Amino acid sequence: MTGSSEEKATRPIRVLVGKPGLDGHDRGAKVVARALRDAGMEVIYTGLHQTPEEIVEAALQEDVDVVGLSILSGAHNTLVPRVIELLRTQGMDDVQVMVGGIIPEEDAQALRQLGVVAVFGPGTETEEIVRFTRSCARGA
Amino acid sequence: MAERRETLSWLEVQRLYRPRDVQVDYDRDLADPGEYPYTRGIHPGMYRERLWTMRQFAGFGTAKETNERFHYLLRQGQTGLSTAFDMPTLMGYDSDDPHALGEVGREGVAIDSLRDMERLFAGIPLGEVSTSMTINGPAIILFAMYLAVAERQGVPWEKVRGTLQADILKEYIAQKEYIFPPKPSMRLIVDMMEFAAREVVQWNTISISGYHIREAGSTAVQELAFTLADGFAYVEAGIARGMDVDSFAPRLSFFFNAHMDFFEEIAKYRAARRIWARRMREKYGAKNPRSWMLRFHTQTAGCSLTAQQPDVNIIRTAYEAMAGVLGGTQSLHTNSMDEVLSLPTEKAVTIALRTQQVLAYETGVAGTVDPLAGSYFIEDLTNRMEAAAEEYFQRIDAMGGVLAGIENGFFQREIADAAYRYQLEVDRKERIIVGVNGFIEPDEEPIPTLKIDPALERAQVLTVQQVRAERDPAAVEQALAAVRAAAVDGSNLMPPILDAVRAYATEGEIVQTMKTVFGSYREAAVF
User: What is the rounded distance in angstroms from the CA atom of residue B428 to the CA atom of residue B438?
Assistant: First the structure.
């Protein structure tokens, strides 16, 4: 299922945009998904109300380079560590995890320590997210 | 500097408006306040007779914490209550359900059973306050719990006043807190309308909401058009049940957003009243003037607030609140400056409430009714909002109505397109948002925010488990069987659900029972 690193270097970057938990705020997730797609990436949007298990299963099936999680409900401290743990269990350590939404700074720091590569808060330009996604997917 | 020549809905704005720019017949299009078509307001004296209701939305943690916030707000001069429920409650899960993990009490108050509802309203006489409850998918269950608390307080149901949101159509369109598929959800709403028309006559059964449509990224025109289209769909569903339109339409109310484009918002509210009145009288044959009157609650735009320089949000909220008042709102929630970061602190919510009090008592805007009427610009904009909404109604009718539009993703696409277009304009600095893409302050100090103690989730899990251990299991089983039987045979679900909550069946159990008959809804994800 997982492609070789050589294949990965030549194909378009693949990103899974996920909405874990019960949160229904999907404006940001959709805007970011569209911006990444318009920047030439292949974007899979999971839709709403996904469990961490469903998100990681989709990431595995779709062989993505990056997982972006959007959470505005305050449940990030429970849901994000679970996704990271499941990715590791599946041997997907090379998949980069980004988080967007309403994340207080002290929580963002804790998430970065767990391995989240970026936390994007309200007011972030889509161009910044595109740039960052490109650099972290390519290991630049 | 960006030179704006369009409203937030991308309607063109001219340099100057003159008499020849506006076509308006006073008696036909405006009329005095309190007169059909109510463009100028639904009451002759408006705020001279009675100020708007100052109603701050509140809820977090367990029932105990939120009960304390309610008492605090009432002591500060708030005049109505408004309940925010947490995500598991909104989605029909008990606090100990695996789906609820990490979400309990975070975005609102956790309610699992009648026990929690009793604690939530402890010391608050339900015959004297009016309570708004923001709940949709499981609204019928929370309504039953509220009525059961009133019963225990000895308050007759005909004295109970308040509002349920119960607007499921906008959940599929925008807010996405749905449980069952659209058809059984509509049936639950009509069951409530039918029951309340008989037994809880002062209750507003549906708060038809544009607020969430707007927060999801729609324009003001889309908010206006989609909300009113939803309203017509509820009216048609009531008529299809065989109810007389005048038996339920007077209890329908609306809920709009107040965003940053000052004049466009005012025009939106005025257009909404005129469209509703005309349709209700001319198309649906309502005879009671109360069926023609569009009453509405307003909340300032959460999505207009910025995480950068959050103090500035106080100013944004004040302008938005003024638009709501100049547009003739019946009640108002002003957002707290920190709501883009967390639920509000007590200090932040007090400033937000004071913003309304300054507006009401110091600015003079409440002194005369609809003071902007006759402005060439406002009247032209009101006409254009109405015309743009009518265009949408035709498109929606052509595709087979609101449910068809939801199924084919029409509303969801229209909103996502507008949200993306707006974001690109901000990214390109074609729109300046103070503190975000202009007038940026480096190295901002973080402001204090409200923290929800994770121990509250554990306490709430224990509470619901204790309730299950203490109640009569045979009574619960019997009550749930009656809910299931009514779900199957189509009789009104309110009476069996009332019996179930009285027996301390939990919200999650009642929802699961209905899911076995109705199924669950999953949307096709489009972006």
Answer: 11
